[in-house]
Amino acid sequence: MAGVYLSFPFCAQKCTFCNFASGVFPRDLEQRYLAGLETDLAPFDWPWRPETVYLGGGSPNRIPPSALRTLLDKIPGRPWREATIEATPGAVTPDLARAWGEAGISRVSLGVQSFVPAEIAGTGRKHTAARVAEEVAVLREAGLPNFNIDLIAGLPGQTPATWSESLDWIERLAAPHVSVYMLEIDPDSRLGAEILRGGPRYGAPKAPPEDLVADLYETAVDRLAALGIPRYEISNFARPGFESRHNLKYWTLEPYAGFGADAHSFDGVSRRGNVESPKEYIDRIERGVSPCDTDEPAHPDQERFFVGLRLRAGIRPRPEEWRRFEAPIRRFVETGLLEIDGPVLRLTRCGVLLSNEVFQEFLES
C-alpha cells in the first residue's frame, strides 16, 4: 500500500548538525506555504488509497491544529494504518497532542538527539531530559503511545559514558521505537562544514573520531536489543509491531507521493523531486507552475539491493540477480560484509558500518 509525505521545512532555530533543506524563515512565509500545500494537494488524482502519512521537517509541530486538520482532510484513507508527525522536544502540550489525535495522527517522532545537557546545548536545542519525559507522558495520556526517539552518535563532546546516559533514558521511557543516526560530516550542516575545515565553532574540535562513533553505534545495537528493541533497519530499532510502516515503504520500494519543498515521490516507474527552496516552492504553486524540478526513471532492479539491504531481514535475490551480481556478492561475502542465509542476502554486522561501500557496488554493477 502507498504512503504520503508532507514536508514542512520551518523551524524555530537551525540545529548545528542539520543538513536538511529546512531552517528559520519569516512567519508570513509559513502561512503562504501552508496555503501552497493545500493548493498542491487539492487537485491530486489519487491512483491508490494511502495507507500511511508522514509529516516531516523542519518542525511540523509548528503547524496550527486547524491548518493541520485542513491538510489531512485532503488525504483520503483516514484512519490510516499510521500517521506520523515529527516534533521538536519542548513543544508538545496536552492540547496539541489531543489535537493531533483528533486530526488522525497516531505516531509522534521526537527529535531528541541526546539526553545529556552539554550535548543538547551544543546542537542548539533547548530541551531537557526531564522535559522529554514529561512530553512522553503527555503523548501517552492523549492516546498516542506509539512514539519514536531520535538519537545522534557522534555529537561533539560525546563519550561512551554520556552515550550510555542517553541509552539509560530510552530504557527509562520504555520507548517503542528508536532511530540512531551516526553524525553526517558534510558541508551542508554548520557543524559538518566546521569539522571539515578544522574550525573551532559549534564544538567541532570535540567531535568524536570515526572509530568511536562506530563503537557508540555498536553499543546502541547491543543495548537496545537487550531492551527488546532490535534493529530492523540500519538506523532504526523497534519493539515488535512498532516498526515505522511509512519508512518501510522506502526500503521495500512501495509507492509514495510527496508534497512540499524538497519532497520526493515514487510510483514504481519514476522518481520525482520538488524544488528545495520553500520560497521557490510557494512561488511556483502561486503561479500555477509545477513544483517538480526532477523527474527520472526508476531502476528497481538496482534499487532493490540499495534499499533492501538496509533492512535486517535482507533481500531474496531472484535467480537472474544472483547471476548478475555474482562477483560483488562473492567478494563481499569473502570480506565479511555480506552473508548468505539460504535464499536471503543481508549485511553482516561489520557490513552495516560499511554499507555505503556495498551499496555503491550494486548501483554500478
Fold and architecture overview:
The chain is an alpha/beta fold. It folds into 2 domains: 3-251, Alpha-Beta Barrel (TIM Barrel), CATH 3.20.20.70; 300-364, Arc Repressor Mutant, subunit A (Orthogonal Bundle). It has helices at 27-41, 65-73, 94-103, 117-123, 129-141, 160-173, 190-197, 210-226, 245-251, 278-286, 300-308, 319-324, 326-334, 349-353, 355-364; strands spanning 3-8, 52-57, 82-87, 107-113, 147-153, 177-182, 231-233, 236-238, 256-259, 264-266, 270-274, 292-297, 338-341, 344-347. Strands 7-8-6-5-4-3-2-1-9 form a 9-stranded mixed sheet, with helices on both faces. Strands 10-11-12 form a 3-stranded antiparallel sheet, with no helix packed on it. A two-stranded antiparallel sheet has the order 13-14. Helix 1 links the parallel strand 1 and strand 2 (52-57). Helix 2 (65-73) runs parallel beside helix 3 (94-103), helix 6 packs parallel to helix 8 and helix 11 runs antiparallel to helix 15. The longest helix has 17 residues, at 210-226. 43% of the residues are buried. The mean pLDDT is 95.
